[in-house]
Design brief:
Strand content: 15-25%
CATH class of one domain: Mainly Beta
Structural class: alpha/beta
CATH architecture of one domain: Beta Barrel
Shape: elongated
Number of helices: 14
CATH superfamily of one domain: Ribosomal Protein L25, Chain P
CATH topology of one domain: Ribosomal Protein L25, Chain P
Radius of gyration: 31 Å
Largest sheet: 7 strands, mixed
RNA sequence: UGGGGCAUCGCCAAGUUGGUAAGGCAUCGGGCUUUGAAUCCGACAUUCGCAGGUUCGAGUCCUGCUGCCCCAACCA
C-alpha cells in the first residue's frame, strides 16, 4: 500500500477552469466550504469512455477538494430506462475506482418533492397546465428569429391549474392530453426559456417507481431540483446544456422550498478518433449484431474496454492527460493507447506465445532431448516477478513473420543462412526450408549453437535479432482474438450524403486465431489475467475461456517502429 | 438571419493585475538493448483564426471580420 507512495511524487494536476473555479469558490467561502458534485447518467445504455471522462472529473474534483460525489440515476423517462443499465452503471463506476459510499440516488427518489414544488410553482403563478398538442406546442414555440405564441393555458386561473394538475396526477387524462409548463417568456431569445414543459403524462411503469406515477418531470426541471435537493454545489455537465443554464438558474431561483444554490458548469465532452460515442448508435451496433454485445472488446463502452484489458489506472491517466476545457475537440485514439501501454508495461509478466506458427526443426538436437532453460518474467526488474523454466526441444514453433526466404537487408530475423537468437535459449542458424507441392514453406530447418546457452556467445559474436519461440511438444493451443478499430474512418460521426454510418464499419475489426501456441504454464491463467506476449503486445484472458482452451484478447499491440518503417502491412 | 459558446504546434492543452508561448501524445534524429518493446538524450509554435487599434511592450485590452459548435423533443 504505502510502498507506492514513496515513488516519484505525483505531478501536480494540470490546471483547468473547473478546478480554478472550485478553488476560487472555496477561497470565497461559498457553500460554507462544501464541495459536492454528482455523476448523473440516465440508465438508458451502457457507460462509455466519454462518461469515464465525466466520472473522473466529478469524482476527482470532489476528492481533490475534500468533498464528495453522488451517483444519481437521471431516470425521468420510463420509456427508455432499464434496471440492466443501472446495474451496469454502478459496476462500471466502481470498477473505474470511484466510491459513492451510500450516496446512490435516483431522480425518481424525489418525484414526490418535485411534484410538491410544481404545485407551489402553480400556486405562485409561475406554471400552468397547457392543453396544446405536441404538434401545436412545437409550432407555437416560434423560431430562433421569431418569438413564440402564448399558450391559451397561460390565462388559466391558479385554482383551475391546481385542479387540472391534481387530476393529471390522479390519472384522469390520457398521455399527451396535458402538460405542465413554466410560465416564463415566449419571446425569449433563448428557446429554452419559452415556457418549457415541466411535466408530461405517461402511463408507463417506471424502472424504479413502478406504477406509482403516471406523470413524469422533464430533465431540466428534475435535474435542477435534484441537484438542489442533494445539496450539490457544482453541477458539472457538457457543453450542449449551455443554453439550459438560464433555465436551471430560473428553477433554482423560483422554486420553493429549496435550500441550496447549485451552480451549473459546462465542459466539452470527449470525442475520440475512430470512435462512435452516440449511445443510440452504440445500441444499434448491439441490436443489429455488428458486435457481440455491450461488452464486446471493440466497443468504446467501459464494459467493452474492460473486457479488452484496459485498466482503470490507464483510463484515469487518460482522463487526466486530455484535460478539461470548453473547446470542442477530438482526441487521437493513439493517446488512449499510449496510456494503456504505459500502464500494462509496468504490470505485465512477459511470456512467449506464437500467434501464427510455423515449425522450426533444430537438426542437431536429438528427437527426445529436452534442454531446460530459465526465462525471466519481467526483465526490466528481474526480482519483481521471478522466473520460469522453459523446455527447449528439437521441434519449435516460431512466428511465420519472423522468417523470410528472401529478406530485405533491414530484416533482422530468420532467413536462409542467417543466425538469430531464440529468446532465453540459443543462437540458431537457418539451414534451409521444406516446401509442399504448392511451393509453400511448411517447415524451417536450422541448427543451434550449444555454446550460446542463455543467449550469449562466448566468442563475443553478435546477432541482430532475437525472436520468440515455444517448444512444439509442450505448447498448448489457445484462441487469440485480435482487434482493430471498429470504424475505418477517423470521424464515423461525420454525415456523408447518400451514405449510412454503418458503411464505415470495418470488416476486419476482429481476427480470430484458433491455434496460437502458448507456453504450457500459461494454461492455468485465470480469466482477466494479463500478460505481455513478447514482441506481440498485451493480452488478457477472456471470460469465454474453457478449461483446456484459453481465449485471449489482444488489448493492444506493442509499438512497432519496424512495421512503421516498412510501410503499411498487407493483410 | 436571434441567442449562447469556442478559436494557442499534426492531436490534446497550460497561459488569470499585458512583460516577451508549459506539458503530454504524435513525429524526426541519436545512445542503450537477449522484446525492431521499454528506457535515455536531443529536435520540434519569432508565434497564438484574420485585420486593424491602444501600449515602451498584447495570446492576454479595444474594434471589425472569418470559421466551427449548441438551441425551435411532452429526450437527456
Amino acid at each position: 500500500m504505502s510502498a507506492e507512495s514513496k515513488d516519484a511524487p505525483a505531478p501536480a494536476p494540470a490546471s483547468n477552469f473547473i478546478r480554478q473555479l472550485v478553488e476560487a469558490d472555496l477561497k470565497a467561502g461559498k457553500n460554507g466550504g462544501r464541495v459536492m458534485t454528482r455523476f448523473p447518467p440516465e440508465p438508458n445504455g451502457y457507460l462509455h469512455i466519454g462518461h469515464a471522462k465525466s466520472i473522473c472529473l466529478n469524482f476527482g474534483i470532489a476528492k481533490e477538494f475534500g468533498g464528495v460525489c453522488n451517483l444519481r440515476m437521471d431516470d425521468t423517462n420510463p420509456l427508455k430506462e432499464d434496471q440492466e443499465y443501472v446495474d451496469s452503471i454502478k459496476n462500471d463506476v466502481r470498477w473505474l475506482g470511484f466510491d459513492w459510499e451510500q450516496r446512490f440516488y435516483h431522480a425518481s427518489d424525489y418525484f414526490g418533492r418535485i411534484y410538491d414544488i410544481a404545485v407551489n410553482l402553480i400556486a405562485d403563478g409561475k406554471a400552468y397546465v397547457c392543453d396544446l398538442t405536441e404538434e401545436e406546442v412545437r409550432k407555437g414555440r416560434g423560431t430562433v428569429t421569431e418569438p413564440g405564441q402564448e399558450s391559451p393555458g397561460r390565462k388559466r386561473s391558479v385554482e383551475e391549474n391546481l385542479d387540472l394538475f391534481t387530476r393529471m396526477k390522479a390519472g384522469e387524462f390520457a398521455d399527451g392530453k396535458y402538460t405542465l409548463r413554466a410560465k416564463i417568456d415566449m419571446a425569449s431569445p433563448n428557446m429554452k426559456m419559452r415556457d418549457p414543459p415541466l411535466y408530461r403524462i405517461r402511463h408507463t411503469s417506471h424502472q424504479a417507481t413502478g406504477d406509482t406515477w403516471c406523470l413524469y418531470p422533464l430533465y431540466d426541471f428534475a435535474h435542477a431540483l435534484s441537484d438542489a435537493i442533494e445539496g450539490i454545489t457544482h453541477s458539472i455537465c457538457t457543453l450542449e446544456f449551455e443554453n439550459n443554464r438560464e433555465l436551471y438558474d430560473w428553477f433554482i431561483q423560483h422554486c420553493r422550498p429549496l435550500e441550496n444554490r447549485p451552480q451549473q458548469i459546462e465542459f466539452a465532452r470527449l470525442a475520440l478518433t475512430y470512435t462512435m460515442m452516440s449511445k443510440r448508435k452504440l445500441l444499434l451496433l448491439v441490436q443489429e449484431g455488428h458486435v457481440r454485445g455491450w461488452d464486446d472488446p471493440r466497443m468504446p463502452t467501459i464494459a467493452g474496454i474492460r473486457r479488452r484489458g484496459y485498466t482503470p489506472e490507464a483510463i484515469r491517466d487518460f482522463a487526466e492527460k486530455i484535460g478539461v476545457a470548453r473547446a470542442n475537440s477530438t482526441v487521437e485514439f493513439g493517446l488512449l493507447e499510449h496510456c494503456v501501454r504505459d500502464d500494462l508495461n509496468q504490470r505485465c509478466a512477459r511470456v512467449m506465445t506464437v500467434l501464427k506458427p510455423i515449425k522450426l526443426v533444430i537438426e542437431n538436437l536429438p528427437e527426445n532431448e529436452t534442454i531446460e532453460l530459465e526465462a525471466v518474467n519481467f526483465p526490466e526488474d528481474a526480482a519483481k516477478m521471478g522466473s520460469r523454466k522453459l523446455p527447449f526441444t528439437r521441434e519449435l514453433w516460431i512466428e511465420r513473420e519472423d522468417f523470410m526466404e528472401d529478406p530485405p537487408k533491414q530484416f533482422h530475423r530468420l532467413a536462409p543462412g542467417k543466425e538469430v537468437r531464440l529468446r532465453w535459449a540459443f543462437f540458431v542458424k537457418c539451414t534451409g526450408v521444406i516446401k509442399n507441392e504448392a511451393g509453400e514453406i511448411t517447415e524451417i530447418r536450422g541448427t543451434y549453437d550449444p555454446t550460446t546457452r542463455g543467449g550469449n556467445a562466448p566468442d563475443g559474436r553478435k546477432v541482430k535479432g532475437t525472436i520468440h519461440w515455444v517448444s512444439a511438444k509442450h505448447a498448448q493451443d489457445a484462441e487469440v482474438r485480435l482487434y482493430d478499430q471498429l470504424f475505418t474512418v477517423a470521424d464515423p460521426t461525420a454525415e456523408v450524403e447518400g451514405q449510412d454510418w454503418r458503411q464505415t464499419l470495418s470488416k476486419t475489426s476482429l481476427e480470430v486465431i484458433h491455434d496460437a501456441k502458448i507456453e504450457a504454464h500459461l494454461s492455468g491463467a485465470a480469466v482477466g489475467a494479463q500478460f505481455q506476449f513478447e514482441r506481440n503486445g498485451y493480452f488478457c484472458v477472456d471470460p469465454d475461456s474453457k478449461p483446456g482452451k484459453l481465449v485471449f484478447n489482444r488489448t493492444i499491440g506493442l509499438r512497432d517502429s519496424f512495421a512503421k518503417a516498412m510501410g503499411p502491412k498487407k493483410e
